[in-house]
Structure prediction request, 336 residues.
Amino acid sequence: MSKFFSLRRISGAISVALLLGCVAGQQALAQVDTGALQGTVKDQSGAVIPNAKVTLTNEGTSFTIATITRDDGTYIFTPIKIGTYTVEAQAAGFQRVRHTGISVNIQAQVVADFTLIPGTLTQTVQVAAEAPLLQTQNGSVGQVVNSRDINDLPLNGRNFNFLARLTAGVTRGQYDTRGLDANGWFTANGTRPAQNNLLLDGIDNNSNNVDFLNGAAYVIRPPVDAVGEFKLQTNSFGAEFGRAGGAVLNATIKSGTNSIHGSAWEFLRNDALDAADFFQNAFHEQKGEYRQNQFGGTAGGPFKKNKVFWFGDYEGTRIRQATPWTASVPHSAGSG
Prediction:
């Protein structure tokens, strides 16, 4: 009996260890779609202020986390989800200073420094954040495409992967017969498209089918309205991405906030609204049927305000297209 219980304990310990390993692995993977916020707290003379309390608040979800500055006056919050934040610093004998509207993008290392003024904590100095002109915290070369750009830029087929081609050094892949170019694959700095690394919410989104027989380099393509933003890194990106000899397309899905938000869409193409091409006009041929409907919606909000949130999306595509048919048979004029 004692052996039986020993075996149960051993198997239980192994199960717990495996579970913890899986959870830790998922957290490590998820960090590639996050960012960081850091800075230094000083007084007016430029002297650093250790042990100052710094509080970070997500303006969309009211999620709050706090830390204290180190001996050199520095602080850091990492990893944090993309979004807009308020960060506040306070110390005994000084006025509280608050920075609002700080945007944190994918893999961004945002700096928010503080200069505290002598006074009481009941006094607050509020500063509106400005976007930095240049990221100097790492040497990664790339570009962030935010939700507004994704929705506003012309995008035939509503495939956000095509927008990766707007980044410097990126262009369409070589022509092929498998439909990959039509599904948005791209080449960066002369590397082959198959060397790119596609991530979605920090998870591997690369197709592992041999030669991309499914006609796309990605596994999942969320609707445009569901994508919060994506970053295309073409050079000097961190080792945590791995795999890629080309570029890294790192996309993240929107999330719920304290307010209900959503969208609905219907994109229509119909042959009744299309002009005939040159050859149809020349031979007085009737236009072939082509009717395409892309429709769907997104919605997000709180399950419990400031605690738990939800977000969902759906997109449907319906295409009806005429198929040309050509046939020929021998006739009497051609017989011997």
Q: What stands out?
A: Helices lie at 2-30, 147-152, 278-282. The domain at 141-253 is CATH 2.170.130.10 (Ferric Hydroxamate Uptake Protein; Chain A, domain 1). The longest strand covers residues 290-304. The first helix runs from residue 2 to 30.
